[in-house]
Amino acid sequence: MSTPAGVPTCYRHPDRETYVRCQRCEKPICPDCMRDAAVGFQCPDCIKEGAKTTRQGHAVYGGRRSADPRLTSMVLVGLNALVWLAIVATGWTKSTLTDRIALLPTGRCSSVGDPGSYYPRLDVERLCDATADGRWFPGVSDGAYYQLLTSMFAHEQIWHIGFNMLVLWFLGPQIEAVLGRARFLVLYFVSGLAGSVCVYWFSGEDTLTLGASGAIFGLMGALLVVAHKVRGDVQSIVGWLAINAVFTFLFPGVSWQGHLGGFLGGVLVTAILVYAPKDRRKAVQIAGITLITAALVAATLARTVVLA
């Protein structure tokens, strides 16, 4: 079938008469070639080209791209600051809030008259209750498993929260921009949990541990894995980690257990996120993170049995 001379025809179907043109390139298009656009219709070629140049809604490794990668880190910094202010307002180094939310492997009998002090030999709740000056605070082995997470938001010394939040502020947005918000939060909390479980296993039974350092070292481990994946400057990151390791082991009172556990947790979680095969990325990521979390839960229960 021929069309009259001078009548516009579809650029893809020359035998079809049309008076509709692509809003982008102005080529004539028939109803089969019309593609809905923000204004009017576009041709298939312009739609395909637009898809190549339009910024995608997903991050590099499958996570949904964050509109503002700084927001999550700002919220985490704010939560840590609020908990620190609550601890300061309720007695600071003698605050009983610290006894409740910091990580304590086994229960502790604290002194009512001298907050911050405790009776190491009164390690059973009934013995503590029989003492007029004693107040019992349960540990993880007594069922206070929430301490494995709440301890991540507890700080006493201003230098401690200051250093942790400074690193979070610098690293958090960069890593969230790569992983997406949901995966960043998974990384943060699983790393923190890994640090807490390591503390639960390898610190003293009556040692009170607090701080976001496990999660922060998890972000450091994540940065190392991502840099290796994209063939970035790994040497400078390793040097920075080495300096932090020296401070960890040289300064008294610093929990090497939490730092090491958090770092290893961050490395494992990020390796799963960035090295998962693209064709089944989400399934592998979910399975891998679930396996790590299950292993941490199993390790926690095993330690409770040992301490029982």
What's the end-to-end separation, in Å? 89 Å
Class inferred from helices and paired strands = mainly alpha
Broad CATH class of the largest domain: Mainly Alpha
Number of strands: 4
- Write down the Rg: 28 Å
Largest sheet: 2 strands, antiparallel
Question: What's this model, at a glance?
Answer:
The radius of gyration is 28 Å and the shape is elongated. By secondary structure, the chain is mostly helical. The chain has eleven helices and four strands, in the order E-E-H-H-H-E-H-E-H-H-H-H-H-H-H.
Word description of this protein:
With 308 residues, the protein is mostly helical. It folds into 3 domains: 54 residues, no CATH class; 200 residues, Rhomboid-like (Rhomboid-like fold, Up-down Bundle), CATH 1.20.1540.10; 33 residues, no CATH class. It is 55% helix and 4% strand. The chain has 11 helices and 4 strands; from the N terminus they run E-E-H-H-H-E-H-E-H-H-H-H-H-H-H. The strands form 2 sheets. The chain has a two-stranded antiparallel sheet with strand order 1-2. It has a two-stranded antiparallel sheet with strand order 3-4. A hairpin with a 4-residue loop joins strand 1 and strand 2. Helix 2 runs antiparallel to helix 6 and helix 6 crosses helix 7. The longest helix is centred in the last third of the chain and has 27 residues. The termini are far apart. The model has no long low-confidence stretch (mean pLDDT 90).
